[in-house]
Structure formats: structure tokens, C-alpha cells
Model the fold of this input.
Amino acid sequence: MVRKIVDKIKHYILYHSYQERKKRELNRYIEEKKRIQSMEKDERDMEYINLKAEYEHRKNEVLALAVSILTALLFSVWDILGNFVNRVIQYLAMSRQADIEIAKVTLMISGITAFFISIIIGYALVSNVKRIRILYRRILMFEEIKNEM
Done:
């Protein structure tokens, strides 16, 4: 029982080690290479064209997202949101003392909203960049196999 637990912990640690990750990556590469080599020429060409098209599409998506983010920063969207919250706080503070709590809640909600929007945009950007990297690797693999044949 204890030996089994120790083996599982050892397997888990080794699974995340650099050598094991490289070994798994090499095995995936070899399997993918065999799969591609076993394809007919027309099927391989179609797959290559689809990969290139998806790669270019993803690249354009990331570029559009990055430009959108930069545009939003240039036009100070977050500054406008902050000004709105400040106006709400000032209005509520002048109204009554009890409304200061409402102003604090409004400020918190606006901050949380800005934070989650930033997280979502960042996640979309990072996941698309990772997908582009994977597609580019597959394209390079296809090109390597084409050159071998």
C-alpha cells in the first residue's frame, strides 16, 4: 500500500520533469510524422493547406485583438470608466452620507468588472498565441516531410 503511494508520487514528479516532457513530445512528434507520412499526397496537401489557412486566420485574430487592446488603451477606456465612477461617488457623497456605501459598492463593482475584462482579454490573447505556436509546429512538420519525399 505504502509502496504503491510512493510509486504514484514518484510517477507524478517524473511526469512533470523536463526529460519526461521531452520524451513525450518526441513520441507525439514521431506518431504525428508517421500519420502524415501514411497519408495520400492529395490528403497531405489538403491538410497542409488547411493548416496554413488556420494559422493565418489565428495570426490575424491575434493581431486584431492586440490592435483592439492598444486602441482601447490609447483611448483610455479604463480612464473613462474611472471618471464615471468618480462622478457617481461625488454625486452620491453630496446627496447623503448613507449613500457613500453605495458609492463604495459601485467603485468595487467597476473595479471587479475591469479586472475580469482584462483577465478575459489576456486569456484570449495567450490561448490564441499558444494555438498559433502549435499550428506553426505542425506546418514545419509538414514542410519537413514534403522535403523528405
In short: The CA atoms of residues 85 and 96 lie 17 Å apart. The chain is about 90% helix and 0% strand. The longest helix spans residues 100-148.
